[in-house]
Amino acid sequence: MKRAWQRMLSGRRLDLLDPTPVDIEIEDIAHGLAFVARWNGQTFGDWPYSVAEHSLLVEQIFCHQNPKIAAKWKLAALLHDAPEYVLGDMISPVKAAIGEGYGTLDDRLIAAVHIRFGLPAALPVRIKRAIKKADIVSARLEAEQIAGFSKVEADKVFGKLAPEYAETFKIHLRPPSEVRTDYTARHEALLAEL
């Protein structure tokens, strides 16, 4: 059988087909996500817009949309794309072309990540939907601010955006080391709130 695990910088070996929570470390997630570019790297600026930066933004939007939400759900929002630290960030059309196999890997990994950090393996539907809503707002902001979409095109593809979001959330590209540090710090802060 071919190798189905990846060695992490922490020294852990993460089995991609059967991931276990004990092999998941936040430092590995933060490091990997800080180096994975969203939009296949097709963004303006001197730094790629990383999945870690996107995850921080999604969590901020989620908190803005749900001001009294429990810390565990904020943590779930921060970790919503955690599997991409080993799977990479595939744009939606590629995920659709690959089909069920990608979804299965993603589901197994996110369940292990959730368990590792004290969340339910499967999130309640209302929480999953609320995170997705924040994720779509983030994608809409990214499309116009850094991915070259016109306002008209972004509105058509991602939906119209309430002006408060464009005024409140500005995207600033940063070096991966800064994003990694901020992602890890936010994770620690949320764990402390639990």
Short description:
The protein has 194 residues and is mainly alpha-helical. It contains ten helices and two strands. α2 runs antiparallel to α3 (71-78), α2 packs across α7 and α2 (51-65) packs parallel to α10 (176-193).
Q: Could you walk me through the main structural features you see in this protein, from its secondary elements to its overall organization?
A:
By secondary structure, the protein is mainly alpha-helical. The protein has 10 helices and 2 strands, in the order E-E-H-H-H-H-H-H-H-H-H-H. The chain has a two-stranded antiparallel ribbon. Strand 1 and strand 2 form a beta hairpin. The radius of gyration is 16 Å and the shape is globular. The N and C termini lie far apart (41 Å).
**Class computed from helices, strands and strand pairing:** mainly alpha
Helix proportion of residues, in percent? 55-70%
Give the helix tally: 10
**What is the 3D form?**
globular
Report, as a whole number of angstroms, the end-to-end distance.
41 Å
Strand content: under 5%
Q: Give the ordered list of helices and strands.
A: EEHHHHHHHHHH
Poorly predicted ranges (pLDDT <50, ≥5 residues)? Answer: none
- Average pLDDT works out at 95
Rg result? 16 Å
- Major β-sheet, in short? 2 strands, antiparallel
